[in-house]
What does this fold into?
Amino acid sequence: MLINTLAWIGTLFMVLAVILSSRGFGEIGVRRRNDDAEIEAYMARKKKRIQWAIRSFGVAVVIYIVVFIVYAIG
It folds into this structure.
């Protein structure tokens, strides 16, 4: 039960990482940017999104390692 739950949590964090890092996320309904301030704001939001995607991926990897250890022990 613990292994199954941890595996599902890891999978959810992996899906979150993929969604956050996808190009389409945050692009829906956005018009062309001609203003430099708009471009800077968009790039700052994109950088934050990518940072959260990397964190989510790291959490997923750690959870999968814990699943493997729990499986190997038990």
Summary: The longest helix spans residues 36-73. Helices lie at 2-21, 36-73. Residues 37 and 71 are 51 Å apart (CA to CA).
